[in-house]
Design goal:
387 residues, alpha/beta, Aspartate Aminotransferase, domain 2, 7-stranded mixed beta sheet, 12 strands
Length: 387
């Protein structure tokens, strides 16, 4: 989260004064207004606000009908929640290497396809857009759904289209560490009515038919799901955050470009699939060796880090996945399900050379959308000094 202030305070105050904090109400309708604003901003037919990005990924997979016997391809470099969402619907996560853009390698994805592959999740990590042209072409050729994990890329784009709207569905996140935030939150974006209806039912299965007219026009049968319903306080905050989204992104991109211009003659900048659509939150600098990267990072400071050090964002740190423990009760564990058991990957012995190489000799420099020209000069001087 980058900018929050009086607008959000006032919006929350209005909700509290209305005494209607529940999503369905006859007062502020913040959830409805926020979803309408999301549809406008993203150009998506459907937007469904909920409690987390993980919930959004899971709801979208449910909407696609993914389950036992199915495999879902995802990259080595993403938060563990991406893999856990796959396990939550009873399917098996299949891990594929990244490329020099830090995102899912199309070639690695294609090599992982089997007759059981039903979905691929390209992750726009750190706001870096994936190569969606190549990934979608491969997926289309094999009849595979594309679920964009745009949880770290709220509002970003790829060749002029918003991330999260190019695949069959997209997931966004609004926790504390995202571009915009309500502390927690997530959303599903899609143009597919059936997927939307199933995600709607799943995300609020106990109350969807009880409150308001949420099932108006819904033709999919009800089924048992989860409780991922948002509330009016969170929606009020997000409504104001969405009004600030493009301003935040514009300043992030401007400052990333400005810092890049100041330092690109003295260091190697990481590759991008679409630098114009990149969210601008992070500037990757690539070194010849891990030792040089660590030396630079230690000297530069300023919140910089080596992505290999980010724990649960690296596949090898996904403890529950690596140890194939998909549920507490073994009867509910997808790794032990008869439809999955013969095909569970040997995660611990898989090798992903690009992941290890790129993430260990890159340093990510955080970008501040509120930097002044003086502060940009200071950041650039710090880079040169550290080099």
């Amino acid at each position: 989260m980058y900018r929050i202030g009086q607008e959000e305070i006032d919006a929350v105050a209005r909700v509290i004064q209305s005494k209607n904090l529940f999503k369905i109400n006859d007062a502020m309708h913040e959830t409805e207004q926020c979803e309408a604003l999301m549809r406008e901003i993203f150009g998506a037919k459907r937007a469904l606000l909920m409690t987390s990005g993980t919930g959004a990924l899971t709801s979208a997979l449910v909407g696609m009908g993914i389950g036992p016997g199915d495999e879902v391809v995802l990259p080595t470099y993403t938060y563990i929640a991406t893999a856990m969402a796959v396990v939550a619907v009873g399917a098996i996560p299949v891990i594929a290497d990244i490329d020099e853009t830090y995102t899912l390698s199309p070639a690695a994805f294609e090599k992982k396809i089997t007759p059981r592959t039903k979905c691929v999740i390209p992750v726009h990590i750190q706001g870096f857009p994936c190569n969606l042209d190549a990934i979608c072409a491969i997926a289309d050729a094999h009849g595979i759904f594309v679920l964009e994990d745009a949880c770290q890329a709220d509002g970003g784009s790829y060749k002029g289209r918003r991330l999260g709207t190019i695949g069959k569905a997209g997931a966004l996140s609004f926790n504390q560490f995202k571009v915009i935030s309500a502390g927690e939150g997530g959303a599903v974006l899609t143009d597919d009515d059936v997927l939307y209806q199933r995600a709607l039912i799943y995300h609020d299965a106990s109350a969807i038919a009880y409150f308001g007219n949420q099932l108006a026009g819904v033709t999919e049968p009800q089924f048992c799901g989860a409780e991922l319903r948002t509330n009016e306080v969170a929606a009020a905050i997000l409504h104001q955050q969405f009004l600030k989204l493009d301003g935040i992104l514009g300043d992030l991109r401007k400052n990333k470009a400005a810092l890049t211009a100041r330092i690109e003659s003295v260091c190697r900048i990481g590759a991008s699939n679409d630098i114009e659509g990149d969210c601008g939150t992070t500037l990757p600098v690539v070194f010849d060796t891990e030792a040089k990267a660590r030396d630079f990072c230690g000297r530069y400071g300023r919140g910089s880090f080596l992505p290999i050090d980010t724990g649960k964002h690296i596949y090898s740190h996904w403890t529950a996945i690596m140890e194939t423990r998909g549920a507490f009760h073994p009867a509910l564990d997808p790794f032990k399900h008869p439809a999955n058991a013969p095909f569970v990957p040997d995660y611990k012995n898989e090798v992903f050379p690009v992941t290890q190489d790129m993430l260990s000799r890159s340093v990510f420099l955080p970008i501040n959308p509120d930097w002044t020209e003086k502060e940009l000069d200071e950041a650039a001087a710090a880079v040169r000094a550290a080099l």
